Amino acid sequence: MKRRPAAASAAVLAFQKPTRKARLGIAQVTNEKRILARGELRHDVVVRSGGRCENPACRKVITSGGCSWDHWLSGNGRRTQQESLATTWLLCAACDYARTNNAPSADYWNQRFKTHCEAHGYEFTPHRTRIEAFARHA
């Protein structure tokens, strides 16, 4: 078996993939930063809400455990990237249940979130209604 010169070995090592441990270490640091950023964002949302449901039609005082951090823009794989103070709001348990089930309608929740965005100076992105979704596929 031929031995490579030291310079060739160094060049080969420079282009190898990092070891699994090195990759995990980098991922772990990135994950920790993301967790810290989410914690700060949650804190900012709670402070902005003043301990009340952020649905303008409700505004109930939220007791411990009776709230939900709702993502207006959600989706598979991109939710974390779309999280911001402008795209999340704090809802009481009753409002969160209703919003999750689009009760009474998607238009109702579009209007509520639009009012919330206008009050805080955020850009509003509406959700599509069922009629719009069906019209697109027709």
Explain this structure to me?
This protein is mostly helical. The chain has one domain. The protein is built from six helices and two strands, in the order H-H-E-H-E-H-H-H. The chain has helices at residues 6-14, 20-49, 79-82, 93-100, 106-120, 130-137; strands at residues 67-71, 88-92.
Q: Structural class from helices and strands?
A: mainly alpha
Residue fraction in strands = 5-15%
Low-confidence stretches: 7-17
| Overall pLDDT confidence | 76
| Global Rg | 23 Å
Termini Cα gap: 68 Å
Offer a concise description of the structure:
The protein is mostly helical. 54% of the residues lie in helices and 7% in strands.
Give the topology, please.
Layout: H1 6-14, H2 20-49, E1 67-71, H3 79-82, E2 88-92, H4 93-100, H5 106-120, H6 130-137
Antiparallel strand pairs: 1-2
Features:
138 residues, mainly alpha, two-stranded antiparallel ribbon, 6 helices, 54% helix, globular
